[in-house]
What we know:
This protein is mainly β. It has no helices and 11 strands. It has strands spanning 2-7, 10-13, 18-26, 33-39, 45-52, 58-60, 68-73, 78-83, 92-99, 115-116, 120-125.
Amino acid sequence: QVQLVESGGGLVQAGGSLRLSCAASGRTFSTSAMGWFRRAPGKEREFVAAIRWSVLSTVYTDAVKGRFTISRDNAKNTVYLQMNSLKPEDTAVYYCAATSHDATRAYSTSANYDYWGQGTQVTVSS
Length: 126
């Protein structure tokens, strides 16, 4: 089992920044990558970004490219999501997730993730 705990959400004005953290514990060696997803009110959960543990390989959804940066600290088993230039449409509950899939093309699909955190609320006011 892998446990994931997110933190860092909050309320911020449009144009502001937040950094989310996801601390992983347990059998983290069984996972190959971590991802961030979000669910806005009344919408489906959507992919935001993903990063591999072993090599510097990242993938982003188009809506956040150039504004969000995913990174990791392997020593701390922690993944971060730096969110800059936030917009009201970024308002959502953000979830981190862990996957054992090796193919980068699999990382944008939530069904390919085995473990999920409880989520952290991000609210961007206009």
